[in-house]
């Protein structure tokens, strides 16, 4: 059940903060619907701030999760899509360069930090501790579920930039003869992950923090070589991206941004200012993620409750 409708949330927030946001003729703001829990949490917090303290209108567009399509829409500036809630670098570098650096039609806030790794559950740690261990045929055989002679790992969703990075790692480490990627949605992976954990079966997968699975389960990140100059050379925008790219070291921490169409500076300047000033904290995002992903709370309820409990932080975003 909703704690507040948009107008009641705005009134409650303003009564606590004493903040007065001047009303303008403002267009509705459209927000991406990305398919990982952290991005969904951020989307609902942004929506709740727009509809609450800013007393404007926002909509999360169901199923709109492909960054390339979203970026094209934000570039047009026609309101078809205005906000991409969780833009990662270097995972989205090619799109970043095209629309933020070159055409300058998309703007962004300050980033928060994201960690990425390839994991196994703790009960596999006595046999697998590093990518070197994956080069052993007997280890790959443990993960061969379909009997085709190759171990399987989850690389991610087809729409994620990180999914290419994981495959490049396996190619660059010379593991393609022993391993094959499985590419499907995070929801499908979570179901398979839970089943594997219950049965203590082998499972190898890419994941990141903040996210609820690493927070809720004992996972072991595989060791990799330290980063050196030139160890990560990505050509993600090329047709032959897998063959043209190399990645022979551990991930650098990713930088995650809220990206938005610069057209909002004319179409809804109050929201544009808010999106430029929002500062997200990885620990806070993980609190939202645990409530939504682990505890199955409604994301809009989580967003509205957090806004009510943190007026000073929200005030910094919208002042």
From TrEMBL:
Q: Name one GO cellular component term.
A: ATP-binding cassette (ABC) transporter complex
Has keyword Ribonucleoprotein? no
ABC-type glycine betaine transport system substrate-binding domain: from which residue to which, for each copy?
28-308
* GO MF entries: transmembrane transporter activity
Record carries keyword Mitochondrion: no
Provide the alphabetized UniProt keywords: Signal
Tell me which domain of life the UniProt entry assigns to the organism this sequence originates from.
Answer: Bacteria
Residues of the signal peptide:
1-25
Instruction: Report the InterPro entries cross-referenced here.
Output: ABC_Gly_betaine_transp_sub-bd (IPR007210)
Protein name from the UniProt record? Glycine/betaine ABC transporter substrate-binding protein
